[in-house]
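Q: Could you fold this chain for me?
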Amino acid sequence: MAERGERTSEFWRGGRRGAGWALGFVSVVGLGSILSRGGESTAKAAMKAGLRGRRVGAEVIERVQDLYAEAESEYAAEALTREEA
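A: Sure. Below is the predicted structure, expressed as structure tokens.
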């Protein structure tokens, strides 16, 4: 029998997968609707915004990872200093 944590994890993983499929489906249907009404410029603007968002998101993640690495290094140095004292 799976433990409760494993079942909960599987539940959320399935929920996220389903939400992703639903969002993709709605996006395709919405894009088709926009394009059928001559909204190419609107669709292109949305795609550009998405690309900018991905780039900004990647930069934020990189900064957070750098901060974490610095904090981890400082923590290890402080722990070493405490052990030597």
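A (continued): Residues 3 and 9 are 10 Å apart (CA to CA).
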